[in-house]
Amino acid sequence: MESPRRLCAAHVRRRSGAFVPPAPASPRVSILVRTKDRPVLLARALDDMLAQTRSDWEAIIVNDGGDAAEVQAVVAARADPFAERVSVIHHQDSKGMEAAANVALAEAAGEFVVIHDDDDTWSPTFLAETVGHLQAHHDAIAVAVRTEIVDEEIRGSEIVETGRRPFGPPHDVVTLLDLLLINRVVPIGLLVRSEAVRRIGGYDESLPVVGDWEFNLRLARAGRIDFLPATPLAFWHQRAQADGALANSMGGGYGAHARYDRLVRDRQLRTDLEAGGTGHLLYLAMLVDEVVQGAEKRIVEAQLQAMAESEQRIVTELRNAIQLYSPAATARRAVRRILRRS
Q1: What is the residue-wise DSSP string for 56-123?
Q2: Which end of the chain is more exposed for a tag (fewer CB within 10 A), N or C?
Q3: More confident residue, 66 or 19
Q4: DSSP H or E run through 331
Q5: What is residue 7's predicted lDDT score, i.e. its pLDDT?
Q6: Do residues 224 and 324 share a domain?
Q7: Of 247, 239, 245, residue with least CA distance to 39
Q8: Which secondary-structure segment (H or E) carries 225?
Q9: Are residues 244 and 285 in the same domain?
Q10: Neighbours of 84 (CB within 10 A)
Q11: pLDDT in tens, 34-92
């Protein structure tokens, strides 16, 4: 079995001969970075971490089957400001996003963990505000933030922003109810207590996509996820026209998302059936059927009402036209014209 190659920032700096002050003995936050063959995006992500107003963090980069030399070059170019806060793990072959997250998690020493994939970014105060919130609210196991989707294009070595869209949970609250429908929190916008991540079993390596949604479902069952609704603190970057390494998982594999969404739901359904039988499902099936039938009935009634109102308008317009152009009306108009001339 392949053993991942692990290099810490100190190794990188010893090669360059640069002097670097020692790293903090115990980082407060472990930042887990997953990357593969995207040095332009990785460079932006690392600069984004270095711009944080809070500095008591470590970054664990997992190069999941990409060019090792490219990753090491990007890290080495930032050796001094990293101050031994970064380590790099190289996989010769790709193991998948969730496996990469678990490898980084196994090395994490921080009280809190957050995934910062190589193509996303933060506001400079993301760590300060999220860590501060969890330190003040011990009963919450995680905190999510208002997020913006940033549409962009890669033009050579340049990243060009083309638009922004809001993204977040309904009514500014993260609930299991909403997560059952669709994922409402992406990794770049979620800080979690390390203990909680390990308690729920980390990330599901059997899922090539939708792993963050499945993780969020288990996390929401384990405890409360708070939400910071003020200004956006996280930015989820998407490149709809990109393919290959530069595509993100949403734009690059919508069909796979739909497939694994169903598989996750089916797996949970089987688990529930083994534990509690089919009674609640039979009730839900009937309830959904009644709701659908009721909605269809209301739609049909609204359509019939609209048709009736339309027919009434046509009848009224025809009646007015008949009255306007009847022989008697025409004669009256002719008499009035003659009288006006005399």
Answers
A1: -EEEEEEEESS-HHHHHHHHHTTHHHHTT-EEEEEESS---HHHHHHHHHHH--SSEEEE--TT-EE-
A2: N
A3: 66
A4: helix 327-341
A5: 56
A6: no
A7: 245
A8: strand 224-228
A9: no
A10: 18
A11: 999 999 999 999 999 999 999 999 999 999 999 999 999 999 999 999 989 999 999 99
For 326, list phi and psi in degrees, rounded to 5: -70, 160
Of 247, 276, 305, the residue at which a domain comes to its end is: 276
Tell me the pLDDT of the chain averaged across its residues.
86
Number of domains in the chain: 2
Nearest by Cα to 203 from 61, 104, 269: 104
Extract the tokens encoding 165: 């869209």
Look at the block and give the residue holding tokens 């009937």. 286
258 and 287, same domain (yes or no): no
As given in the structure block, the two tokens for residue 80 are 């001094």
What pLDDT was estimated at residue 5?
55
Distance CA 99, CA 4 (A): 12
DSSP 8-state code for residue 206? T
**Tokens at 238, concatenated:** 């998407």
Mean pLDDT, range 258-265, rounded to an integer:
88
- Indicate if 255 and 159 belong to the same structural domain: yes
302 and 270 fall within a common domain: no
Question: What DSSP state is assigned to residue 51?
Answer: T
pLDDT in tens, 279-330: 676 667 777 777 888 888 888 888 888 888 888 888 788 777 777 777 776 7
Helix, strand and coil content of the chain, in percent to the nearest 5, comes to: 50, 20, 30
Q: d(Cα 216, Cα 290) in Å, to the nearest integer?
A: 30
The C-alpha atoms of residue 340 and residue 342 are separated, in whole angstroms, by: 6
Cα torsion 22, 77, 96, 89: sign = negative
pLDDT above 90 (res 196):
yes
- Which of 246, 276, 306 is a domain's end point? 276
